[in-house]
Amino acid sequence: MPVRSAALAMAAGAALLLAAPTATAVTHDARHVTESVTVDPTGRIAADGSVTLSGTYRCTAGTGPVFVSSSVSQGDPSVRYGIGGTRAVCDGLEHRWVNTGTPSQNALEPGAAHVEATLMELRTTGILPLPSFHARQGQDVTLTAG
């Protein structure tokens, strides 16, 4: 039965992809429209273990909700901790983002770390909202107590 379920899931996924609208030609000059996300070089760890990360983003209008998500790793790069998410305003202007989250107890400490921020839109394709990535930035940072 598990093999049949997997085959049905793959067939359903393929049908969704085939039903997705195709991309159209971009009519604007891409040199004038930039989508980006940055990460500030310093993050904070509070006494309660919560981590605050920040940076900037810029995006153009999307068809679905857009978010700035962030994650941090320290030591082992394969272990990442999600640190909140911020709803983005996609008007072509630069905006600040600030995400705060509390990873597993004692998971992070002040010092060197690596942060990844992603500007991602949820676009409805068929019946499911699927992620569409606008920008991503990885940045080595220093986590400070406070």
Automatic annotation (TrEMBL):
Instruction: Specify the DUF6299 domain's residue ranges.
Output: 34-145
- Signal peptide positions are 1-25
Reading the lineage from the top rank, the first entry is: Bacteria
Q: Pfam families under this entry? A: DUF6299 (PF19816)
> What keywords tag this UniProt record?
Signal
Its recorded name reads DUF6299 domain-containing protein
